Amino acid sequence: MALTDEQIERYSRHIILKEIGVKGQKKLLEAKVLIIGAGGLGAPVAMYLAAAGVGTIGIVDADDVDLSNLQRQIIHSTADVGKAKVKSAKETMEAMNPDVKVNTYRMFVDSTNIRELIRDYDFVIDGTDNFPAKFLINDACVMEKKPFSHAGIIRFKGQLMTYIPGQGPCYRCVFKDPPPKDAVPTCKQAGVIGAMGGVIGSLQAMEAVKYITGVGKNLVGRLLTYDALNNDFHSIRLPPANGKCPVCGENPTITELIDYEQQECAEAQHGKDL
Amino acid sequence: MTITVAGEKKEVKDGLTLPELIVNEKVETPEYVTVSINEEFIQRADIETTVLKEGDSVEFLYFMGGGC
């Protein structure tokens, strides 16, 4: 598959990079990335991956665009309020780059559907806003041997780590089990500075691009944290993959996916679609 | 003694315990924080009885669930 003249022009800033070149751009065009959540994190990830020419992007979200989303979910605009988020996201991505095929999944991921959903994709982005989903994505990716980027944001802070099968710890190696519901605040309760989604989401897109093109090092075995108020990026080294981890360890005790109880806030937000 | 907390060197009293450090550092949601010392995770059950030593490097890892 040769690049067209238009593609050579469109992706010229990638092609010039010796680490990427035409070869790397072709890898991006042939890649498939699934983004779970079209919100504060998913929005910038989707836009940067579409711009980069990732050939197939899947986007999962059950919600409609809400006015309060627009402060940070930059893939959606005022005219999209009331529209399904996946539809709004698809329109933005397609307008940005006709090379990209967008698959929309207007649904919640759960233990019955996630493994089949992620199977077709090369890399998964966790853009969700609740711990049950984050643990579900982790466990499913471990079981399906899919690399994924985990991230979280709140107030003026954010963090991310990357799981690549066989190479480093998974999210559960570090964080064991979800906190009790309502123990840790959500963005709705505590707030989040809009650009934080952009900072951390862009780093997630970067992780996907590096993985697909084979360039540089992925954020494996490290949790990168950002504190915007103190201008502090801090990389915490994580212990190697824990042979005793209940899901990715040598003798897994978690062999079935778990649907943890949702926080009331998440239920209230999503409940209207049920 | 000198220890490192979240990448910064700090002077603390000898024999400082981990629970004391957690209070001093005003760690948020201390019941749910994950702690590593010298890149080894401390089991939740052991946090109460852990005493810090000269040169220890402590990191606090937080649950961050937003992405919305």
Question: Could you characterize what this model shows?
Answer:
The complex is a heterodimer of chains A (274) and B (68). Chain A has helices at 5-10, 12-15, 21-30, 42-52, 85-96, 114-119, 131-144, 171-175, 187-190, 194-213, 264-271, and strands at 32-36, 56-60, 101-105, 123-126, 148-154, 157-163, 222-227, 232-237. Chain A is globular, with a radius of gyration of 18 Å. Chain A has a single domain, classed as NAD(P)-binding Rossmann-like Domain (Rossmann fold). Chain A is built from eleven helices and eight strands. An eight-stranded mixed β-sheet of chain A has the order 3-2-1-4-5-6-7-8, with helices on both faces. Mean pLDDT of chain A is 93; it is low at 264-274. With 274 residues, chain A is α/β, with parallel strands linked by helices. By secondary structure, chain B is mostly beta strands. In chain B, a hairpin with a 2-residue loop joins β1 and β2. The N and C termini of chain B lie far apart (42 Å). The mean pLDDT of chain B is 92. The chains are: A alpha/beta (274), B mainly beta (68). Chain A binds chain B through residues 37, 39-42, 126-131, 134, 151-154, 157-159, 174-176, 179, 183-184, 186-188, 190, 192, 197, 223, 234, 236-239, 269, and chain B through 6-7, 29, 31-32, 34, 36, 39-41, 59, 61-68.
